[in-house]
Amino acid sequence: MSKYLHLPSMRVIILFLIFNFTIGYCQKDIPTDYFINPLDIPLAVSGTYGELRSNHFHSGLDLKTEGQEGLKVYAAATGNVTRIKISHFGYGKAIYIAHPNGYTTVYAHLQKFSPEIEAYIKKRQYAKESYEIELFPKAGTLSVKKGDVLAFSGNTGGSGGPHLHFEIRDAKARPMNPMSFGIDIKDTKKPTINGVWVYSLDDTSHSNGNQQPTKLRLIPMDNGDFKAEGIKALGKIGIGVSTIDQQNLAANKNGVYKITTELNGQENFSMEMKRFSFSETRYINRLIDYKHYKKNRSRITKLFIEKNNPLSIYKNVTNKGFFTIEDSLSYTLKVFVKDFKNNTTEISIPVKGEQIDHITKEEIIKTPHLVKPTENFTYNSGIFDLYIPKGSLYEKAYLDIETNGDTIKIHEDEIPLHKNMTIVFDVTNYSPADKKKLYIGRLGYNNKHYHVRTNKKNNRFSTRTRTLGSYSLFTDLEKPTIVPINVANKKWMSKANFLKIKIDDTDSGIKSYRATINGKFILMEYDYKTGMLIYNFEDK
Length: 540
What we know:
By secondary structure, the chain is mainly β.
């Protein structure tokens, strides 16, 4: 009796183990001949996988399309369309294909889709009466084979020029480097070094008698490598490097694949752009010197791991990548910067340990407002309430907070926030009519202001943001403008392929639009970069 009761359970366990072994095998052993190139032109990239972007790592390859739109985009492997998303921003028109081996490919910034997929989407856009839409087709509804024309390349969404954004994601939806799968980009060029810095990382350490980040003078060698000027240091220090890589078929300044450091010939630290998860990507602001980036618009990658940095791109790390320099000893620090094709640029840094009595320390300006990563922070003054939740800052910092009339200054944008802070304005003193036109804006360069999402609830207007700086109330008194492009009085439109209209708003921006012909909804595609609305008469 017992035997028969346990037999089905054993079958379930065996099947479970086989299933998990199969999935694990597929994901562990990366197939290098499974996916084909999504374009049928020599591949040139304007953006590499993992390169440093604003608040995130780049999650795929940006493949150049010869400066034009409309190139055929091919399914990299057989599979099912599992997601389609069309938005004004971000990826624009994007499509996701799940493949039998557990991976998913993503194609973004598309101009349009294949006729079958286009018809599927249009039907649902008209039913929803919305250009922006997100769809999750059931398995088998939209199947594609390797090499099928899936779509046509474009410049939709947040794209800065015509190109195809291409991703490969694993079974846990983590983007991986497409070049690991055999997507080949010709590259015989060594990475370029823009600068190297030394960081003093505790109260007693220094480099050349200074606790401020110190930029080193680099001496170029005949083979393309560099030797840095010798430094005198003591205690706990770290290295930062500013670097880019370029491939053969494009002049774009792209990201590197791998950076390694050594101390006297022993590897001390390594970071590799092979795979990461979207949940960790904002920790890029812990990887880079954020303050330097905001002031100089160049990114320094810190080759050491500070607290509150859970990035998974690190490996073979000793003592979190720090170097401990002792008095009267000599060291050779080396940095190796590599691209995916293993082209390598080496930097050699001679270090002599030396105790110095008088150290120029980094000045810390103390204010009444000390914010700690482990505690919530609140501020109340006049019409303002400010809330910064715990976990927003990576390390404690004194914030300079000031108010003046309808404006609140919350430090400068030189400290990164990992979570949204909430700023609340009390608008009791405004009339009901004025409140309708009122919104919150962020003050930028030369006091130019930018509209931010404003939540209105009775007399409390609020916004949530991860950017420090100055915020104020503004009134929008101007109506949006509508300008016909190919429409004129008494012009007969029956032979036109498209209806084109330009819309704009000089203050708070376009929130929504709706178009009809003879009272019937028509689908107009909107490109926020040009302000253009376009209707295709083939929709009828």
